[in-house]
Amino acid sequence: MKSIYINKIAPLCAFSLLIVGAASHAQKFSGVVLDADGNSIAKANVSLVNTKYKAVTDEKGEFTFSDIGAGKVELHVSAKNFSHVNEYFTITEQDLSEVTISMRATVMEVIDVYATPLHSSSIESALPVNVISGDDLRLKQASTLGETLKNEVGVHSSYFGPVASSPIIRGMDGPRVLITQNGLDVGDASRVGPDHAVAAEAGTAQQVEVLRGPSTLFYGSGAIGGVVNVVDNRVPKTTDNQVDYLLKHNDVADENEATLNINSGYKNFALHLDAFWRQSNDYKIPGYATAEENHDEDIHDEEHSEEETKGVLENSASKSSGFTVGSSYLFDAGYVGLSYGRMERTYGIPGHAEHSEEEHQEMVTASGGEAAVFGDLVQDRYQLLSEISFEDSFINRLVSKAAYTDYQHQEIEGGIVGTQFNNEMLETRFDLYHQAVDGWKGAWTLHYKESDFDAVGEEAFTPPSSTESIALAWLEEKHINNVLWQVGARIEQVKLNASSAGDLHDDHTDGLDSYSEESFHFIKQKFTPISASLGAVWGYSPGYNIGVSAAFSQRAPSASELFSNGAHIGTNTYEVGALFSVHEENHELHVDMSDQNVALETAYNLDLTWRKFEGDFGFVASAFYNHIDDYYYQANTGLFAEDGHESHDEAIEENNIEESTGLPVYVFQQNNVVMYGVEAEFFYQVTPSLKATLFTDYIRAKLTDNNNDNLPRIPPMRVGGQFNYITDKYSAELSATHYFKQSDTAALESETAGYTMLDANVNFFIDAVGDDMVAFVKVNNITNEQARVHTSFLKNVSPLPARGFTVGIRGSF
């Protein structure tokens, strides 16, 4: 199978190399970048949009481009603490010099977004965007992508322990939120189940971008809820020499971490190497892991302590490591590069730890202790990136991307592999950019993705399946006076094919006695999702704009949403796909093929964003409304099925007879849904050294065809704020976030109490060898609050960590 994928990707490499060309020579374009007071701005990034030309201003704020072809060009200028500037110029037979660019200061950080084909900045998008980079990313960096992003407005975490937390965007996750690396699917199994770790590492990333809202136009079906794009330098674009490093330790999990990024080059060849290593023990918690409401009222604290350890979340240890090597060939018109990366992770899945040596076999984890269930993943990833510009041509730029991913994940219980997940994925993408036509600039995209996924083992809950998609997309934008118009459309064909599957129903805990084995034969599923969007960004006054986006998006269901039928030990549930029906008859649980047709998920989304981004006070306020027809969701049936675990010890078998251990049965259903909410951030530069930030978000999600019942695991409302103080020698931050009680729950879903998290950090700037060295101290959960995450399947058995201290050092040279 691997050779087939390599044969498919090889022509792309050859194609990218064949079209390497030379640029024609023409005129010189130079200028200076100044602030509103006329002072020069050094280290500003200056580029000609959709060309190879890029420069950084010197100490006098000056820049120069040579050999510019005649015609109209768009100049883009960005600098830290300033709003981005876009201006148009016409290059003629003579040199264009003494151009002056004026930039206005901003209290907000404005960063270019790579996740969108036209690379607009975070304040120029019709849809709201979060971007974390630089020191901010290093401060927020956690062991999972979900925990790294959980404090971003509009973003929460699924929190499946310290290593398997995925981002949730506006209440959506799983197959609706696409995780990408440099714009290509990470190709792991995290979209199948929340217990699977995301195979993308924030520790070696340059920036992480979050598109909040439908992004199917850019990425297809799997992005109807949004996109998280991890941008790194694995395929380098410059030969600049730089080394970045980080070392840190936290006491809440006795965790040690090290990351390293090296970039260099020789002549036309750029080189990159990065690596990371992280290891932790079971982490500390305030009190007991199991929520009190899960215990009988007459169980006292003394009896409680006999069944679980107080102050520690058992089976939460982990070990992760990985590296990436990459190289690029740089030429006048662009670059072409290839990288290889490998990631390995072993982590416990909380909520499965046993409490007696007689009840399980001893298993050595990353921390050297015992564990009942843990995950073990290995991923190999090859990535090709290329960007080539063409002068004097209607097609002025070609961006090519391809990735092949070989992913394996084992769920191990008591030393025995219960399930092994395998996923081989090939993805290719070509973006063709054209010269402006009557002011409209844009791109066409050809996008192909193929995934072969299978789950093997006695506890596999989904049959082997393949998913293939091919799509054409089109995106244009134009400035008309002070309004930026954005329009686009996409058509996609998705094919899903699953092997025949046998279904095993064992005894279960509610007295439903049945045992039957039946083979299910699936027909190939074909879908044709269509997406279209219209957006506008109106700069109605200097430093202000309003963004409006209306989108029509469709999503094809994932293989797990259709074909699942079995016990999922990672989530402690019995999962049944939408192609089946579940019912109880004569105290027997029956799973049969359904006679109902499955449909595309269709969303009608409206987003409104208001921004003020210049001066000492700024804000971004968003409101959204999303009506979704035929929304796929997991409904709790109220039935239970036997967990299906094979017993490897007679004591276990006898215990299972005496004490029922049934798994709740969840079935994928379709229903019409409305989701709406608000998000806001406010920034105030109190003094040159002190900055205050306030944020809040709120979301409601209801099933409109079912008495307006609530969707399960929807994040609660929250309000947060922070103070940042910075001097030449040090900086400090104090932040607090209050999560309100979540009482808008689904049927058979429990409420979750509110809580407040108080965190702080101090950074000391050290004069040493290199450009930057920072020693830092962080304190999380200062008040030692006991908190549970409503969006987690494990909220009743896996609370957030106790008070923890982190110390470390980071730098570059």
Automatic annotation (TrEMBL):
Protein's UniProt keywords contain Signal: yes
SUPFAM superfamilies in the record: Carboxypeptidase regulatory domain-like, Porins
Signal peptide residue numbers: 1-25
Keyword S-adenosyl-L-methionine: no
Gene Ontology CC, one term: cell outer membrane
GO MF term list: siderophore uptake transmembrane transporter activity
Domain TonB-dependent receptor plug: 124-227
Keywords linked to the UniProt accession: Cell outer membrane, Membrane, Receptor, Signal, TonB box, Transmembrane, Transmembrane beta strand, Transport
Domain TonB-dependent receptor-like beta-barrel, residue spans: 390-782
One Pfam assignment: Plug
Region Disordered, annotated ranges: 294-319
One annotated GO biological process: siderophore transmembrane transport
Membrane topology note: Multi-pass membrane protein
InterPro entries linked to this entry: Beta-barrel_TonB, Beta-barrel_TonB_sf, CarboxyPept-like_regulatory, Plug_dom, Plug_dom_sf, TonB-dep_rcpt-like
Compositionally biased tracts (Basic and acidic residues): 297-311
Cellular compartments annotated: Cell outer membrane
Superkingdom of origin: Bacteria
Family statement drawn from the similarity comment of this UniProt entry: Belongs to the TonB-dependent receptor family.
PANTHER family, A to Z: TONB-DEPENDENT OUTER MEMBRANE RECEPTOR (PTHR30069), TONB-DEPENDENT RECEPTOR NMB0964-RELATED (PTHR30069:SF40)
Identification of the protein by name: TonB-dependent receptor
Species, as recorded: Colwellia hornerae
